[in-house]
């Protein structure tokens, strides 16, 4: 096979891949009424997005548009099922990874997305659940692309404190080292930006740490009786 043939084959594969992404996004715009069908479709979108590299071509960016639009519709953002919300966050995180934090979403939309992300973190108590398996790679991606710093840029102080409270509880639990490392990385990234963080936010963060320490001591003391 000549270099020309290989390049042609690659282009054909790329076009087919872009077609699959566009079709999946268009299907998502017509949100399935069945929860199972919706979860299956979100899984497919997430799996496709995971193969898209950062700084995609113009044709790939065009192929991503239906998914980008579908993922921020009120029907999905405000879905009542937690599994749907977590799967939705998984897809959005991939979009943000692909766009290298040059978010295609408006600030208010990003704030709503962060609310979903923090809510997902608070639903990691059961390791065997679908949500837990989704949240682990979400954590890893947020740590790698430093998405947590966008929360500071958007002045999501209350959400940052809520996220820290959730992390502190889980850091004290028996979770895999990869999960704990991702959480610690995110917390360190936020704290390292302390020069740009308001005193009120820092006070709230440290107050949440002290409160959690107090709760742990009380639980430990009760268990000794």
From TrEMBL:
GO terms for cellular component: chromatin; nucleus. Keywords: DNA damage, DNA repair, Nucleus. Its main location: nucleus. One of its GO terms (biological process) is mitotic sister chromatid cohesion. InterPro entries: Pds5 (IPR039776). It is found in: Nucleus. This is Sister chromatid cohesion protein pds5.
